[in-house]
Amino acid sequence: MNIIDEILAHNRAFIENKEYEKYQTTKFPDKRLVVLSCMDTRLEELLPKAMNLRNGDFKHVKSAGAVVSHPFGSIMRSILVAIYELNAEEVVVVGHYDCGMSVINADNMMAKMKARGITEETFNIIKHSGFRLHSWLRGFDHVEDSVKQSVEVIKNHPLLPKEVPVHGLLIDPVTGRLDRVVDGYELATPVK
């Protein structure tokens, strides 16, 4: 049985046994929080537990490395939707130690793409379109600096209300220990 068939078989039993009932909540985050974190598998259950967040407490946005790579991309749009439409009032960027994005190399990734059938012609089309593929695929050297950069992109976004605190944290993916990188309360402009 393939993975999708396994998922669908499980889902039928999940619905039949009404297991969904324990997860029911509203679309509005109870703690009025939106969290941008890395998509690392070690954080799936650890991050909410380490932050004392339950189902329904927060909006969770994920990207590789908790990076906001473009101020008008889908990550930033999701954060703005959480604030304007879903009543979130604070943003927390959570990077983590031992992040795979710190070892991402654009040339190596492109070689893997070629090995999986992406042609040189495709790379040339992207290059001649003006898109900077190497920059887009590049990782980062220091996770703390990356968290600070993502906080800066969010905090300085022209569509973000100035009173919204944007925090930066690092989590240890083994123990769940949280370290503050940016105190968003210090940077937020109080509402008058």
UniProtKB/TrEMBL annotation:
Record InterPro entries: Carbonic_anhydrase, Carbonic_anhydrase_sf
Reactions catalysed, as given in the entry: hydrogencarbonate + H(+) = CO2 + H2O
Any Pfam family: Pro_CA
Alphabetized UniProt keyword annotations: Metal-binding, Zinc
GO molecular function: carbonate dehydratase activity; zinc ion binding
Keyword Protease applies: no
Cofactor: Zn(2+)
Keyword Metal-binding: yes
Binding sites annotated in the UniProt record for Zn(2+): C38, D40, H96, C99
Record PANTHER family: CARBON DISULFIDE HYDROLASE, CARBONIC ANHYDRASE
Family (UniProt): Belongs to the beta-class carbonic anhydrase family.
Descriptive protein name: carbonic anhydrase
Organism annotation: Brevibacillus borstelensis AK1
